[in-house]
Amino acid sequence: MRYRPLGTTGLSVSELSFGAGPVSGLMTGDSFEDQRAVVARAIELGINWFDTAAGYGAGRSEENLGLALESLRPQQPIHVATKVRLLLNAETDLRPLVVASVRESFRRLRLPRVTLLQVHNSITPRRGDEPTSITPDDVLGPRGVLAAMEDLRAEGLVDHFGLTGIGHPDSLRLVLHSGRFATIQAPFHLLNPSALVAVPPDFTETNYGGFLRDAHDLG
After folding, report:
1. By three-state DSSP, how is residue 148 classified?
2. Which residue of 29, 42, 129, 194 could cross-link 199, Cys pair, CB 3.0 to 4.6 Å?
3. Looking at residue 83, what is its pLDDT?
4. By C-alpha distance, which of 2, 1, 56, 69 is closest to 29?
């Protein structure tokens, strides 16, 4: 396995990460033996980066990953990243919501801390422009998501902060250029390469406006 620097964290992580999302259904399903076997094989092959989220399978992904890691007790350092997604109405102080979500994630993961905590909401000019979207001020404001993340880091519960890079490109850039986030996990694939390359005017998917170039320039 080859390893690369992860954003501005100073960490070296495996080129391949273990995604515990719901696409395959494995980590959100019921077969613990299969889950344990796959996690064990990933670790055997040198994967040291595991990515999950509170929203994957309504917490099942975190719970199953936590059980597998607890059962295996790997000797080498393993990094776990999870995510927080808020469902907002008219709330103005988001800090208690973030802290409550993260503490539930720790309970499911059976971990005292995580390497990376990521914002899982879309970021748009106005709340609700996209389902569950929040604004740059919701992230960066004094009673926002980032303030809660800083409190958690001060407690030694979180090492680094990241973005999942979905939403409106201008709003994402505002948050990205704050310099407060060490990573961005951006949608980038053959069907939608717009986070990195220019796309034609008639492009029908979400146009992310090349914001990965900004991320690259920021390190």
Report:
1. helix
2. 194
3. 98
4. 56
Which H or E element spans position 83?
strand 79-84
Catalytic residue among 18, 49, 50, 56: 56
Tens-digit pLDDT profile for residues 69-79: 999 999 999 99
Query: What superfamily in CATH does domain 3-185 come from?
Result: NADP-dependent oxidoreductase domain (3.20.20.100)
117: left (phi over 0), alpha (psi -120 to 50) or beta: beta
Instruction: Give strand pairing partners of 13.
Output: 4
Q: Are 61 and 31 in contact (CB under 8 A)?
A: no
Q: What is the pLDDT of residue 90?
A: 84
Please state the domain extents for the chain: 3-185
Residue 179 DSSP SS3? coil
pLDDT for the residue numbered 123: 97
| Known catalytic membership, residue 208 | no
